[in-house]
Amino acid sequence: MTDQPTQRPALAGLRVLEIGHFVAAPFCTRLLGDLGADIIKVEPLGGDPVRKWGEQVNGRSLWWSVHGRNKRSIALDLKAQESREIILKLVAACDVVVENFRPGQLERMGFGDAALRAVRPDLIITHISGYGQTGPYRDRAAFGVIGEAVGGLRHLTNHPPGTYGLPPVRVGVSIGDSIAGLYAAFGTLAALWQRDRAGGDGAGRSLDVALTESVLSMMEAMLPEFGKLGKIKQPTGGGIATAAPSNAYPTQDGGFVLIAANSEPLFARLAVLLGQPGLTQNVRFADNPARVAHAIELDAIIAEWTRTLTSAELEMRLNAADIPNSKAYTAADVAQDPQFRFRDMVRDVEDPLIGKVLHAGIVPHIPDAPGTIRWTGPDIGEHGDEILSELAGYEPGRIAGLREAGVLA
Q1: 294, 310, 329 - which closes a domain
Q2: 36, 241, 242, 364: least buried by Cβ within 10 Å?
Q3: Would you name the residues annotated as active-site residues?
């Protein structure tokens, strides 16, 4: 245990079975688990592949400490007939199943929607896949990066056309998977509300969340601008295509500070700091559309000033003028930030497998029903015995037999 809750978390009493791997489905269930849901994670005997991703301490993934937190792990050979019986018994005790296999794969394993609802008629089943459960691409392989490419994001994560010759860069984290997981969590709660609210129908439902569609839904005006004007949205580097000035500007000590002075009052205050208050009267910078049209020229003027100051000096002046700004935080900056620390968004957690480790806190923050980090990412199959005893009614001898037969880790 790491947090001792003082109030009942928002999702306490909700039980979710995760038959997922890699990022999208496990991220969805981590969000639900952070808010108090009981997450039963079904893993293959060798564990979720993410256990081997990223930096390791004593052969254990630091990412897994966060990615698997607040979950109970049971590791099964899903090809074994005994495992099918176990899964169906667990489903009968759960409100929700979340999975992210390719469309049709669970059904081929004997866990299609009909089979699951035969044991739990009001079950919410959340499917997450690359392209969705239907359509001409449904059977194509996809990871988050493919969702980012098809959804339009990867094209935009680059410098402006003609200024850079390398491929468009990745955002830096598995953002496509995480967005899909976030939508899946949101959709799951919506389905539960529809099922369980006063006057609800009590019926089970299936959700269909696609990585590609999750990313596409974030693309702001990309589609309407193309449909109406034939305009193909292009990457803008550190700037914003719809507002200026808003970019990362170089400093005397080799850093970059982001400045977002894209309203009229903010730009006026920035112009004073620049020592050029007359910029607001210049027709090229008089309003936001004009500044966007001349953003390259304006950014050059601002950069000439920012290069004369260190990052700390620049931030101090911008803060005094109440202009939104920040250096681009590294992991060290995040870990030491007093705002994150004050709100417990960066916290020291004791992981029994790897020792003390930093975790990101819980979002959203619900003061009256706070989420908690009850435990860190568990060992493979750590909770198998208690899950089978509590939810499937198995006696110790039967559990031992499953382990001896190689069905249970």
Answers
A1: 329
A2: 364
A3: 177
